[in-house]
């Protein structure tokens, strides 16, 4: 595919989006601009000629495009967007210049109606917009609870202060149950499962909240590592050449996650130590243990 | 077998602890005997790794069954052949792999066959009633692994655990005589511990491959480490 064409198309679309936002006097973060452009792409649909020229991959915060990011940086470097930490607003001079004509929109006026719909969505200013992107388009259903329950709770004091460990662990188990099988993801899945096992033990001892500070790092690393796998699994062909380096990065991240889980297990090693614990397995459980562990151990 | 008080436990010995099957009664008897039992951080890690791999396999089978039942309109006649088809479809996903979830293919196939046998009635009920039996089983599975994990954690707390920096040269020599790398690392741990406290050790394992290599490994490790199955001690 013609990568330069991609840069040109994204550049035109980005200028259009920034002008629309300025016209409506709306200021949003550049992360959300990425998602707005992704949503435009998805609403155009797979058969639209622009679809393949708007290249994205799924990453830590949802769909991400290096091309959008690069074009955005260029506009910033050219002082079209005054510096702001959180939100983005086009300067007046650039607005006048970019508003004078946009070949892309002239050729594909449907973008206008799609963007009107997106920018009329009151959720655009809230996390709900990002969450809806996950709910509508994420490659796996469990990515929404993984990101917005397991991960975000570790980053948001408001969420963690109302944390109910049982509910958190139910979500964790659902995510674990839905993990896809893939050779690249195998060691991640084992670490994620180990983490779950230890969290369950801690919770059974009513020590979950007391150990929240220790729980945060491995949970955060779990999401960040999974995100490095999911971009390999789900990316547009534009990024095919990056897959080799992404695989190396994933491998390193899995090692980092592994040692974080090791550390977490070490720190919580003595929480469960009940010498009288000797459960009675019922016949179903016995059969299941023999089906799994029995077969694994047999010569 | 000469009497040696220090016993180093291989992963497979620890994994049998919660099993009630007659095949592992010997191991339960062995644990009643009074020895100083040791493990290493590598053994512990490998134990948990196996547990989690087996859980992941069980969950993956569940997911497959659920998806298959939901996505297909299965007629009630010939239900057994449909269940067989569900299993075959599942196994076919891995037809080109030598290892699945890090477990040898043959063992993996045996596990899948036995899990399908274990769940046969529940799968049938789910197809017939179109209800949520499988969700209930998923809950039971969660509980089972929790119990297993707790049992293992509890037992391992009674063993002396240590960690050493491994000697790669010795590990390579152990690999050369036929041990898998993960086994060689654990045997090296045992050797390190025996040197550290200057006592003879016996490496307790069910692994026939290790037992087969034991004569050469014994020479290589300067006679400090013997190799044995737990049953040997029951005959004394």
Descriptive account of the structure:
The complex is a heterodimer of chains A (299) and B (236). Chain A contains 14 helices and two strands; from the N terminus they run ααββαααααααααααα. Chain A is mostly helical. Chain A has two domains: 3-124, no CATH class; 138-272, no CATH class. In chain A, a hairpin with a 2-residue loop joins strand 1 and strand 2. Chain A is elongated, with a radius of gyration of 23 Å. The mean pLDDT of chain A is 92. Chain B is built from twelve helices and seven strands. The model of chain B has no long low-confidence stretch (mean pLDDT 88). In chain B, helix 3 packs antiparallel against helix 7. Chain B is of the alpha/beta class and 236 residues long. Chain B folds into two domains: 6-34 and 164-234, no CATH class; 50-155, no CATH class. Chain B has helices at 11-16, 25-32, 41-71, 79-92, 105-118, 120-129, 133-156, 168-176, 181-197, 208-212, 214-220, 231-234, and strands spanning 6-9, 36-40, 99-100, 103-104, 160-162, 201-204, 225-228.
Summarize the structure.
The complex is a heterodimer of chains A (299) and B (236). With 299 residues, chain A is an all-alpha fold.
Mean pLDDT of chain A: 92
Largest sheet of chain B: 5 strands, parallel
Helix content of chain B: 55-70%
Count of alpha/pi helices of chain A: 14
Number of strands of chain B: 7
- The structure class of chain B reads alpha/beta
The SSE string of chain B, one letter per element, is: EHHEHHEEHHHEHHEHHEH
Range of helix content of chain A:
55-70%
- Average predicted local confidence, pLDDT of chain B: 88
Q: List how many beta strands of chain A DSSP finds.
A: 2
Strand order of the largest sheet of chain A: 1-2
């Amino acid at each position: 595919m013609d990568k330069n064409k991609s840069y040109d198309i994204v550049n035109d679309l980005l200028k259009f989006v920034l002008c629309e936002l300025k016209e409506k006097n709306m200021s949003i973060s550049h992360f959300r601009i990425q998602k707005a452009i992704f949503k435009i792409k998805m609403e155009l649909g797979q058969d639209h000629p622009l679809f393949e020229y708007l290249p994205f991959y799924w990453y830590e915060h949802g769909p991400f495009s290096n091309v959008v990011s690069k074009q955005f940086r260029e506009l910033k470097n050219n002082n079209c967007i005054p510096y702001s930490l959180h939100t983005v607003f086009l300067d007046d001079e650039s607005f006048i210049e970019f508003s004078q004509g946009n070949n892309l929109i002239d050729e594909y006026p449907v973008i206008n109606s799609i963007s009107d719909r997106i920018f009329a969505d009151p959720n655009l200013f809230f996390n709900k917009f990002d969450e809806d992107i996950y709910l509508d388009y994420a490659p796996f259903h469990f990515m929404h609870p993984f990101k917005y329950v397991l991960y975000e709770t570790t980053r948001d004091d408001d969420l963690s202060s109302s944390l109910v460990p049982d509910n958190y662990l139910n979500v964790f188990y659902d995510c674990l149950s839905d993990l896809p099988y893939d050779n690249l993801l195998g060691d991640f899945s084992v670490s994620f499962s180990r983490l779950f096992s230890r969290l369950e033990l801690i919770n059974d001892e009513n020590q979950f909240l007391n150990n929240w500070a220790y729980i945060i790092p491995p949970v955060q690393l779990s999401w960040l590592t999974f995100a490095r796998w999911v971009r390999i699994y789900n990316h547009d062909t534009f990024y095919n050449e990056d897959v080799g380096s992404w695989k190396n990065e994933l491998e390193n991240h899995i090692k980092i996650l592994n040692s974080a889980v090791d550390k977490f297990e070490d720190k919580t090693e003595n929480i469960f130590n009940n010498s009288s614990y000797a459960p009675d397995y019922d016949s179903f459980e016995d059969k299941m243990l023999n089906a799994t562990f029995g077969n694994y151990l047999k010569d | 077998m000469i009497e040696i008080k220090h016993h180093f436990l291989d992963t497979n010995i620890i994994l049998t602890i919660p099993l009630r099957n007659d095949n592992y009664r010997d191991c339960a008897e062995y644990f009643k005997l009074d020895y100083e039992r040791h493990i290493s951080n590598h053994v512990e890690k490998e134990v948990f790794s196996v547990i989690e791999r087996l859980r992941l396999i069980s969950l993956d089978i569940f997911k497959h069954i659920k998806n298959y039942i939901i996505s297909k309109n299965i007629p009630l006649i010939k239900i057994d052949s449909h269940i067989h088809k569900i299993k075959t479809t599942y196994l076919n996903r891995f037809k080109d792999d030598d290892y699945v979830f890090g477990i040898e293919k043959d063992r993996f196939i045996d596990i899948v066959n036995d899990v399908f046998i274990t769940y046969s009635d529940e799968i049938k009920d789910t197809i017939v009633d179109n209800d949520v039996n499988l969700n209930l089983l998923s809950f039971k599975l969660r509980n089972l692994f929790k119990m297993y994990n707790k049992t293992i954690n509890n037992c391992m707390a009674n063993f002396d655990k240590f960690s050493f920096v491994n000697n790669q040269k010795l590990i390579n020599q152990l690999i050369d005589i036929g041990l898998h790398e993960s086994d060689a690392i654990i045997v090296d741990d045992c050797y390190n511990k025996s040197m550290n406290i200057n006592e003879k050790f016996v490496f307790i394992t069910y692994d026939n491959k290790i037992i087969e290599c034991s004569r050469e490994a014994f020479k290589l490790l300067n006679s400090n480490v013997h190799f044995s199955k737990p049953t040997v001690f029951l005959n004394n």
